[in-house]
Give the backbone structure.
Amino acid sequence: MLLLLRSVRRDKSVRSKKENHPDTLSNKLTRREALSTGAKIGIAAGVAAVVAGVGGYFGGLASVPAKEVVKTIKETVTQTVGGAGIFGKGYRFSYVTHGGEENVFWNSVMLGMKEAAQLVGADAVMLRPKKEGDLAQESANFESTIAERPDGIVVPIAYLELLPLVKKATDAGIPVIVHNIDAPNAEDRIKAGGLSFIGQDLDFAGYFLAKTLSKYFKPGGHALILIEGPGQVWAEERAKGIIQFLKEYNTTYERLDVGFDLALVESRTSAYLQANPQTTAVFSVGYTAPIAGKVLQSMGRKPGEVAIGTFDLVPLVIDGIKSGYTTIAIDQQPYLQGFLPIIQLTLMKKYGLSAWDVNTGNAIVDQSNVSKVEELSKKGYR
């Protein structure tokens, strides 16, 4: 407890690495109140409670499972979870995403949200459109969420058109945390009121993927880039990073719009690779590049003849790496993108702490370590 009190005394607030974020509470603590003995004890006890709760939860002490209700409202899949904890009891948080039902990546994000809500005892709901990237449906979900006035909203900026809704929410007094996809210019998100970003640096991640994969193909070749979300911020930012490196590496490239329908990905990728046998590398900005491995295998090509790099540890990617046809994957740790916003919003509402940015990473997965992460991936944690 003494150590916690000293930490509170030294660190008056947590701030973003990009800019100091505004306090969103209507009833702010004054400097005198924040430094009072009572406030110190309250904050220290709360932090200790969170730490103890996390340890107890993952140690198997939280035996009461979350109650889950699944229902379809119009064209939105909604999943609500009530928790067994008490630290954040009474708070309601809403996630509004672009991730359609066919995009299994969002299952890990939802799992993180659910377990964080259970841990602190808050209620959390995630609204997903029926179809990936449906801007009209996502905007409608965002509008209805603002009208319900939850204690916090979590949203990816898949489209710049969502920024005015971020501002509308913050103008209504609802704190907004951006996760998974930040605005290309973080200043735009901050001006709109987005308090922090929890996710991967997408532009850099694309560059990092291409540079890492370049160990497996020579410069002067030709690359194919599969674009699962053409026009969406996340896809274009990753593609931008990949293309930047390929230009530096003297490698020609071509973009191919494919979406997340795996049958469509396979047919388009197969047609391209049949027509362009000189292709030496295949990238995807999402997780579908392993489909190229299956196509190459059917063409009689051996593992490693064409370097393949992709994102995220969904089963398709794990199987591709194990087969040897997918060379590397970059894990952005989506579980954290669901879990951490609940923790930040709870601390903001309870103690007036500000939000802080979190880069959830660029973890490389290949044949040397895929077995270590496979089981966690199956469970949704990687």
In short: Residues 1-80 have pLDDT under 50 and may be disordered. The radius of gyration is 22 Å. The chain has two domains: 48-200+334-361, 203-331. Residues 203-331 form a domain with the Rossmann fold fold (CATH 3.40.50.2300).
